[in-house]
Hints:
The structure is a single chain. The protein is about 45% helix and about 20% strand. The chain is α+β, with helices and mostly antiparallel strands. The chain folds into two domains: about 10-90, Orthogonal Bundle (Arc Repressor Mutant, subunit A); about 95-180, 2-Layer Sandwich (Alpha-Beta Plaits). A hairpin with a 4-residue loop joins strand 2 (about 60-65) and strand 3 (about 70-75). The longest helix is centred in the middle third of the chain and has 14 residues, at about 80-90.
Amino acid sequence: MKVARAKSLPSQILKALGTGIALSIILSSPIGTRRLIKGIRKEWKDRGVNTALSRLRQRGSIDFHSQKDGSLKVVLTSSGKKEARIFALDDIEFVPRKRDGLWRVIMFDIPESKKNAREALRRKLIMWGFYPLQRSIFISMYPCETEIAMLKELFGITDKDLALLTTHSPPNLLALNSHFRIH
């Protein structure tokens, strides 16, 4: 599967569709199309959107469904949903909030059938600076419940597959203090 750059027009369309924004293109009304496009993104130009939609359809990321009113509904295919998830993952940032004295321990046992989700989760936790206690156990000294819930939802990870615990005394405290530069 070829994935577009995160800032490209096709990626913006996939992100919009992936977040639940419905795109309808009114075939009989160029004015309606321009108005719709202007409402979503000022920088989306008619020709650019048409070209991007055509390319997305050619590679199987989107499909068109005719509506009774003469419009076309643009929908994500299963591969398009996967691409949209990748772009959505890029948008989830972790901004450390004020420490509350608790440590967050993230433990996961994600099945092989969701290997890509497991690896993306692992990469994101490392990128956010979480301490890898083991390959599937990470620790943070900052509140991160919201971000972890977003990742779980994004990848369809259940409570059975991932648990977030809070504790006052995590394992390997010396290594954690060094990692988070606590003196």
